[in-house]
Amino acid sequence: MQKLGNTKLWKEPKIAVFLSRKSQKEFVQKVLEWAKEIPPEVCFAGSFHSQAEKCFLHHVLQNGGKAVWLLGKSLPEYLSREEDRALDEGRLLIASFFHREHFNAATNRFANDIAAMHSKAILFGQISYDSFLYPFYQRLLEKRKDDVKLIS
Questions:
Q1: What's the confidence (pLDDT) of residue 90?
Q2: What's the confidence (pLDDT) of residue 18?
Q3: Domains of the chain and any CATH numbers
Q4: Which pTM value belongs to this model?
Q5: Separation CA 68–CA 129 (nearest Å)
Q6: pLDDT class for 45, splitting at 50, 70, 90?
Q7: Three-class DSSP labels, the chain
Q8: Average pLDDT over residues 14-28
């Protein structure tokens, strides 16, 4: 495993966030508003792979929040301004479990499983029955019903 950033974030309470690749802009705004209500000491975790998840990650970091970004591929060569600043300020941990250029379904599932396993709460957003995330959502709902929230 390779990592960049503040490893102490791993031990903080986390909310895992999984948003569909098909999430619409209006829905993403709804999730960003929800994130503003979460106490600042909470850290968000996820693979932040979909456009909606990336938008969520950047919003959290721009507003001084903390995140654990779990990758199913190699560490990125370049980071955004928000990511760089968050690393410098100790508000971001990026962990890579695989040495490969791109995600695939298996490495993405692995990163998602790790995020969920190490989070106290799990948020899913705008997933449909044919979504990549739907079987994952069902499995977690069966095992951790009280920890899983779905925003539609």
A1: 97
A2: 93
A3: 2-151 (3.40.50.450)
A4: 0.90
A5: 27
A6: very high
A7: CEEEECHHHHHCCEEEEEECCCCCHHHHHHHHHHHHCCCCCCEEEECCCCHHHHHHHHHHHHCCCEEEEEECCCCCCCCCHHHHHHHHCCCEEEEECCCCCCCCHHHHHHHHHHHHHCCCEEEEECCCCCCCCHHHHHHHHHHCHHHEEEEC
A8: 85
